[in-house]
């Protein structure tokens, strides 16, 4: 029952009762507000704890991704170095093939024996096109998912 619902005469006659009731209501509201503020602080603290855990999880994940990227980068550098060596080796072998072919031509010319001299490696040699599979992809054996890991 609020003080506004009482008649003016009723307020005058029970002013001590109203004052005690008002004080009780104010105290009750103050306690309710304190409890509400305490619950709000607890919720905020829980949210902050969750955010701190999320930050730690994301930092750990970021470190794992960075380590994986560094690993892939070093693997790429190693493969690139191997490719450079293989290209140099292919050029060297091409030069040797040309030299051997020249020797064979000289031998053929002076001996009169016909020789099968291959001027260059055949264009359909799959070793010259490492980016293409030498057989259809449909014929490739399919392994488990564990085979896809590095």
Automatic annotation (TrEMBL):
BZIP domain mapped to chain residues: 23-86
Keyword Transcription regulation attached: yes
SUPFAM superfamilies given in the database record: Leucine zipper domain
InterPro entries the record matches: bZIP (IPR004827), bZIP_plant_GBF1 (IPR045314), bZIP_sf (IPR046347)
Pfam families with a match to the protein in the record: bZIP_1 (PF00170)
UniProt-annotated location(s): Nucleus
Gene3D superfamilies: 1.20.5.170
UniProt keyword terms in alphabetical order: DNA-binding, Nucleus, Transcription, Transcription regulation
One GO location term (cellular component): nucleus
GO MF terms, alphabetically ordered: DNA binding; protein heterodimerization activity
PANTHER family tied to this protein: BZIP TRANSCRIPTION FACTOR 44, BZIP TRANSCRIPTION FACTOR 53
Name this protein carries in UniProt: BZIP domain-containing protein
Annotated source species: Urochloa decumbens
Lineage: Eukaryota, Viridiplantae, Streptophyta, Embryophyta, Tracheophyta
């Amino acid at each position: 029952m609020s003080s506004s619902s009482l008649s003016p005469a009723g307020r005058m006659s029970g002013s001590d009762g109203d004052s005690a009731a008002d004080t009780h209501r104010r105290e009750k509201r103050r306690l309710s507000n304190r409890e509400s503020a305490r619950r709000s602080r607890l919720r905020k603290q829980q949210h902050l704890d969750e955010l701190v855990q999320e930050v730690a999880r994301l930092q750990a994940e970021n470190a794992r991704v960075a380590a994986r990227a560094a690993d892939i980068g070093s693997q790429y550098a190693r493969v690139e170095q191997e490719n450079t060596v293989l290209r140099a080796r292919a050029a060297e072998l091409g030069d040797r093939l040309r030299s051997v072919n020249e020797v064979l031509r000289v031998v053929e010319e002076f001996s009169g024996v016909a020789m099968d001299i291959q001027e260059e490696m055949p264009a359909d040699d799959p070793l010259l096109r490492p980016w293409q599979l030498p057989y259809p992809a449909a014929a490739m054996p399919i392994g488990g998912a564990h085979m896809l890991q590095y």
